[in-house]
TrEMBL record:
Pfam families named among the record's database cross-references: UAA
Transmembrane segments: 34-53, 73-93, 113-132, 200-220, 241-261, 288-312, 333-356
Main location: membrane
Domain of life: Eukaryota
Name under which the protein is recorded: Uncharacterized protein
UniProt keyword list: Membrane, Transmembrane, Transmembrane helix, Transport
Coiled-coil spans in chain: none
Length: 377
């Protein structure tokens, strides 16, 4: 859609029209409401289970005790996740190429991928994730909640300023409703003694930097879908493979420099360190494997959402996914919703409705324009 909205000073050639139509067919024609439901369900399901396993690793049981003994391993875990994502994507791609060799030939595989764009995606992915995790040490929980809830707005602002994208009124309202609803719901759950007095300027800068990097990531993800004469469009699994592979280049040095790589290795070599309880690490390897495989499955649905729809739709799903997780948790424990929370729930559902309506109404308009152009030719 971003290609179709761009304006040029002169008339478009027939080759330009073909390029635009090809890009549209790849990113929108296949993006039916049913596929959107599958992608959204896959993202929500995978990361809901991911949260359960993650809690088991870091908060409960013997695995948590082992991690507390060795120290922080956040960047080490992120590194393992990237490696798992690479292996899963590589296995999927190699298997599909063996099963469907003709499909590979028809996809223009003779053209190379634009690795500069893929490398840029990996950098912004790494920068946003690192800044967000580091900011938690310098800001209060309410401030972090507010920043995480407002991810949609910066993403659209970067698209508007950098890519010169034009968003409809429905899309802006959708982002405002979802952001406002999630923010109100989360802030209403905070206790009165939680305040933002401990926020540092550096921590606020890290949060702002993280949001800008999220916006830049969405911008570069849009460029992955653009057909070019020199490069071919990367598939969803190819994006997953190369983005995570390049992310390892950034993640490995960070993990080693912070000492978290060494801490992580201690978990798998408890006998080399008398301070580590060997019995508490017996099942940790299998738990971490399930954690990474679940994250890899979630990434598959994320990259398919980006490929079939758009980065902004993916951001909408991932942002509201956290909201629904909290919503289910509150409902599960029998808590009653306040008036403010019911209002926020209606705002989020209203925003999601506007996002879906805007997505498929704009798709219908583009298809109508295509048919009219064919008739005029």
């Amino acid at each position: 859609m971003a290609i179709l909205r761009q304006r040029t000073n002169g008339k478009k050639s027939s080759s330009d029209v073909k390029v635009e139509e090809t890009s549209f067919q790849k990113s929108n024609t296949s993006g039916s409401p049913f596929l959107l439901l599958i992608c959204a369900s896959g993202i929500c399901g995978c990361y809901l289970y991911f949260g359960i396993v993650q809690e088991r690793v870091f908060s409960k049981g013997s695995a948590s005790n082992a991690i507390k003994q060795v120290g922080s391993i956040t960047s080490f875990m992120l590194l393992l996740s990237c490696i798992t994502n690479v292996l899963v994507a590589l296995l999927w791609i190699s298997t599909s190429q063996k099963l469907f060799p003709k499909q590979r030939e028809s996809n223009g595989s003779d053209k190379p991928l634009n690795h500069m764009i893929l490398f840029g995606n990996a950098f912004f992915y790494f920068a946003a994730m690192t800044a967000s995790n580091e900011a938690l040490s310098y800001v209060s929980y309410p401030t972090a909640v507010l920043a995480k809830s407002s991810k949609l707005i910066p993403t659209m602002l970067v698209g508007f300023l950098i890519e010169k994208k034009s968003y409809s009124v429905q899309e802006w309202l959708s982002a405002a409703f979802i952001t406002g609803g999630i923010t109100i719901f989360n802030l209403s759950r905070l206790s009165k003694d939680q305040s933002d007095d401990g926020d540092s300027i550096f921590g606020l800068f890290l949060l702002l930097f993280s949001l800008v990097m999220d916006g830049m990531l969405a911008s570069f993800q849009n460029r992955l879908k653009v057909d070019q004469k020199k490069y071919r469009t990367a598939s969803a699994l190819e994006c997953m493979l190369w983005v995570n592979l390049y992310a390892i280049i950034f993640m490995l040095p960070l993990s080693i420099a912070t000492g978290q790589f060494q801490n992580g290795l201690k978990l798998f070599r408890p006998l080399d360190d008398d301070s580590i309880d060997a019995s508490s690490t017996s099942s940790l390897s299998m738990t971490i494997l399930w954690l990474n495989l679940t994250a890899a499955a979630g990434q598959i649905f994320i990259f398919f959402t980006i490929s079939l729809f758009s980065p902004i739709m993916c951001t909408t799903i991932t942002t509201t996914r956290k909201f629904f997780t909290i919503l289910l948790s509150v409902w599960k424990f029998g808590h009653h919703f306040t008036v403010a929370q019911w209002t926020s729930i209606l705002m989020v559902f209203g925003g999601l409705y506007l996002a879906i309506v805007s997505k498929f109404s704009s798709k219908d308009k583009i298809e109508t324009t295509k048919e009219e152009n064919k008739k005029n030719q």
